[in-house]
Write a structure and sequence with these properties.
Layout (H helix, E strand, L loop, with lengths): L1 E5 L4 H13 L6 E8 L6 H25 L6 E8 L2 H11 L4 E5 L6 H4 L3 H9 L4 E4 L10 E5 L6 H15 L2 E8 L4 H21 L5 E7 L3 H12 L2 E5 L3 H10 L1 H9 L3 E4 L1
Parallel strand pairs: 1-2, 1-4, 2-3, 4-5, 6-7, 6-9, 7-8, 9-10
Antiparallel strand pairs: 5-10
């Protein structure tokens, strides 16, 4: 697996690197660090000098980081770009045929307006591969359990199959959470049928029991997921195309936003 880690040498980006190292399983895996220099000045000569100094210092710091992880046996390399971070990170992921991007967030400045900052939000839209977002206060222990929120859409089965392969390789527990709407009798019956259908589907597609189904009650998906992630921890997994769940999570749930801001990693599949 080829993992790309955007690096600005902050504690949050270094935590993302540790998360990537936790997912790298052997010599066949590769981690590429990418640092994007975004400098804007009124005078071109001043900008050129500043960027050159920044690039020199960044290379030295990256070299030290790579050397400090040599004993872990994972191939690591460093890439340096200049320009728009969102565009260049996505472009690098495409050019390098990256399987996964793992990036950190700075926590307190992240979710107040748009989940986790403009660069991260832009990358979630533009990235050609899945993105794992690791909040500043996340524990690496949370990487050991993945919880999937599904919208029962046609695009989800192949993504779920990919996730099962990944978690099997990583030796990580995988579970699907189904939120049952208990607002009325008719709705309850429909939700019960959906839960039974999902249980049968998982048993048929993954007979070895590699995926566990968890059912929770609640009128709002966002609130139920927030409560569940607060209790269970781990990584919340969603598909980028699941607009209904996505909008509820990002726009309507203050409690889930706070959870992401503090400690809940988010894996977006696309």
């Amino acid at each position: 697996m080829h993992i790309l880690v955007p690096l600005d040498f902050s504690d949050s980006s270094l935590l993302a690197l540790e998360a990537a190292l936790a997912l790298a399983t052997g010599k066949k895996d590769r981690i590429s660090l990418v640092h994007v220099v975004e400098a804007v000045y009124d005078f071109a000569s001043q900008a050129a000098i500043t960027v050159e100094n920044h690039q020199s210092e960044s290379k030295k710091m990256a070299k030290k980081i790579i050397q400090s992880h040599v004993q872990k046996g994972v191939r690591m390399d460093y890439l340096q770009k200049e320009g728009n971070p969102t565009i260049l990170i996505a472009q690098t992921a495409l050019e390098q045929k990256v399987d996964l991007i793992v990036m950190g967030t700075k926590g307190a400045s992240g979710l107040k307006k748009s989940l986790i900052g403009t660069v991260t939000v832009g990358l979630l839209k533009e990235a050609p591969c899945p993105v794992l977002v690791v909040p500043a206060q996340a524990s690496l222990a949370s990487i050991r359990q993945f919880t999937v929120a599904l919208a029962y859409a046609n695009h989800e089965p192949p993504m779920l199959e990919k996730l099962v392969r990944w978690t099997k390789t990583w030796k990580i527990a995988l579970q699907v959470v189904h939120v049952r709407d208990e607002s009325g009798i008719a709705t309850t019956f429909k939700e019960e049928l959906m839960a039974l259908g999902m249980k049968s589907y998982l048993a048929k597609q993954f007979p070895k029991g590699s995926v566990k189904l968890i059912t929770r009650k609640g009128e709002k998906i966002s609130d139920a997921l927030a409560d569940f992630m607060e209790e269970q921890g781990g990584v919340l997994v969603m598909c980028h195309a699941d607009k209904s769940i996505w909008e509820q999570l990002i726009k309507k749930s203050q409690s889930l936003q706070m959870a992401f801001q503090t400690k809940v990693p988010l894996l977006i599949l696309n």
